[in-house]
Write a structure and sequence with these properties.
Radius of gyration: 29 Å
InterPro entries: 2-oxoA_DH_lipoyl-BS, 2-oxoacid_dehydrogenase, 2-oxoacid_DH_actylTfrase, Biotin_lipoyl, CAT-like_dom_sf, E3-bd_dom_sf, PSBD, Single_hybrid_motif
Largest sheet: 7 strands, mixed
Number of domains: 4
Cofactor: (R)-lipoate
Distance between the termini: 81 Å
Number of helices: 13
CATH class of the largest domain: Alpha Beta
Pathway: Amino-acid degradation; L-lysine degradation via saccharopine pathway; glutaryl-CoA from L-lysine: step 6/6
Shape: elongated
Structural class: alpha+beta
CATH architecture of the largest domain: 2-Layer Sandwich
CATH superfamily of the largest domain: Chloramphenicol acetyltransferase-like domain
CATH topology of the largest domain: Chloramphenicol Acetyltransferase
Strand content: 25-35%
Pfam families: 2-oxoacid_dh (PF00198), Biotin_lipoyl (PF00364), E3_binding (PF02817)
GO molecular function, one term: dihydrolipoyllysine-residue succinyltransferase activity
């Protein structure tokens, strides 16, 4: 066995990044054949094979940072690669050749395609360790990108070897591990079956009626589910699983929060902070880093300005109250306020097209389609899935579309296509009790409407003081493309359509 070592990088160079492996584990190699390319902040270096043989191990995956003298991998010396190339002897029965090949077969675990605009992701926590047995399609790890979390499952039954550790930056197609299939899996079977007594106890009949759920443990849950379980003190055994492979999804865990029995209150400690550090440093997730970067870029790029108005929600609330039961019975979805706001926004965008446009260099791109972004708060941060061609949908279609996008956002199952290409955004801070705010543009869009809390306030109506349900509206817009007159007109138009919903039906 010959180690592949990181060469000296130069007096002032202390580290390098693995740029590319030219061979995979199990591939035959020749002495002095190029195996891996390294990149430093000054030069690119090539590392060659130290001997003839088979590439037996890769310890530093593409994207990893290494230092001089670090072991990058190893080569099994000798003629180990010869049987793979040579044909079986004439006297050897064909039946004997297959088991040998199956026993040594490895299947790579590669980073899946994460979308056209996503070039990299960060490795989450592996749910299995190297050397443990895995089953085909069993969830192994989540890769977090700046938009969505991508699940990676085992490609085959066998024994896992991990090539990219938690926190490592990986790119689409990169190898992050492998599974030694077939015969090798049986070797790990005894160790995997060791905790049988505990599992047998967990499989006792439970209220959920699901044996798989009853045996669920924290180390078999995805990281997103683990966070919900830990933060809300849930028992995985009591959560009903609805995942496609019988696994507990994040939505299952969230749904179980209100159903979990409230634990008895513990005695308050004499000093609440006595066992906690004064400060805690936590690395930002990729999604949070992207949110921060994009919001700051939006502020730095656009000439942002916000105009306000208020809307009397009396008529919309009365209409909703009158028809909500019939609406839900007919369409199978509840009638909310978002569909009314979306319809009003689309009508206003028709009238003021600059708010539905964007700037590209010295050009203005006017959009003749209305793809409305709906801001959704999730555990990981704010995301804005897009309701496509919202102008072609009726109220029921809008409510169904928004409900589906919201569920996918909270489950972490949004696709990249659902997060791109919006022409205007609506955000509802009122769901959290916000009275007024100035929303930041979702670049490159030129407008965003902020909804807020509905509050009973005294209003002067025809010379009389009456209590009305009022909501403040805020329109943030890019003053480079939208003039103040257009912005105010847009917001007034939304106000009029909400205060008199029949106008939309009459196209007034």
């Amino acid at each position: 066995m010959a180690d592949i070592l990181t060469p000296a990088l130069g007096e002032s160079v202390t580290e390098a990044t693995i740029a590319k492996w030219t061979k995979k584990v199990g591939d035959p190699v020749k002495k002095d054949e190029l195996l891996v390319e390294l990149e430093t902040d000054k030069v690119s270096l090539e590392v060659v094979s130290p001997a003839d043989g088979v590439l037996g191990d890769i310890k530093a995956a593409e994207g990893d940072t290494v230092t001089p003298g670090a072991v990058l991998g190893s080569v099994s010396e000798g003629g180990a690669a010869a049987p793979a190339k040579s044909a079986p002897a004439k006297d050897a029965p064909a039946k004997q050749a297959k088991p040998a090949a199956a026993a040594s077969e490895t299947v790579d675990i590669n980073v899946p395609t994460m979308g056209e605009s996503v070039a990299e992701g960060s490795m989450g926590k592996w749910l299995k360790k190297s050397g443990e047995a895995v089953k085909k399609d069993e969830l192994l790890v989540e890769i977090e990108t700046d938009k969505v979390a991508v699940e990676v499952s085992a490609p085959a039954d066998g024994v896992l070897t991990i090539a990219a550790d938690e926190g490592a930056t990986v790119t689409p197609g990169q190898k992050i591990g492998s599974v030694a299939a077939s015969g090798d899996a049986s070797a790990a079977a005894p160790s995997a079956a060791a905790p049988a007594p505990a599992q047998a106890h967990a499989a006792a009949p439970a209220n959920t009626g699901s044996a798989q759920v009853s045996g669920a443990r924290n180390d078999t849950l995805s990281p997103a589910v683990q966070r919900v379980v830990a933060e809300n003190n849930l028992d995985p055994k009591s959560i009903a699983a609805t995942g496609p492979k019988g696994n507990i999804t994040k939505a299952d865990a969230i749904a179980a929060i209100g159903q979990s029995p409230t634990p008895a209150p513990a005695a308050a400690p004499a000093a609440p902070r006595a066992d906690q550090p004064r400060e805690e440093r936590v690395k930002m997730t990729r999604l949070r880093q992207t949110i921060a970067r994009r919001l700051k870029e939006s502020q730095n790029t656009a000439a942002q300005l916000t105009t306000f108005n208020e809307v009397d929600m009396t008529n919309v609330m009365a209409l909703r109250s009158q028809y909500k039961d019939a609406f839900e019975k007919r369409h199978g979805v509840k009638l909310g306020f978002m569909s009314f706001f979306t319809k009003a926004v689309i009508a206003a965008l028709h009238e003021i097209p600059a708010v539905n446009a964007e700037i590209d260099g010295t050009d203005i791109i006017y959009k003749n389609h209305y793809d409305i972004g709906i801001a959704v708060g999730t555990e990981k941060g704010l995301v804005v899935p897009v309701l496509r061609d919202a102008d072609t949908l009726n109220l029921a279609g809008i409510e169904k579309g928004i409900a589906a996008l919201g569920k996918a956002a909270r489950d972490g199952s949004l696709s990249l296509d659902q997060l791109q290409g919006g022409t205007f955004t609506i955000t509802n801070g009122g769901t959290y009790g916000s009275l007024m705010s100035t929303p930041i543009l979702n670049a490159p869009q030129s407008g965003i409407l902020g909804m807020h809390n509905i509050v009973q306030r005294p209003m002067a109506i025809n010379g009389e003081v009456k209590i009305r349900p009022m909501m403040y509206l805020a329109l943030s817009y890019d003053h480079r493309i939208v003039d103040g007159k257009e912005a105010v007109t847009f917001l007034v138009r939304v106000k009029e359509l909400l205060e008199d919903p029949q106008r939309a039906l009459l196209d007034l």
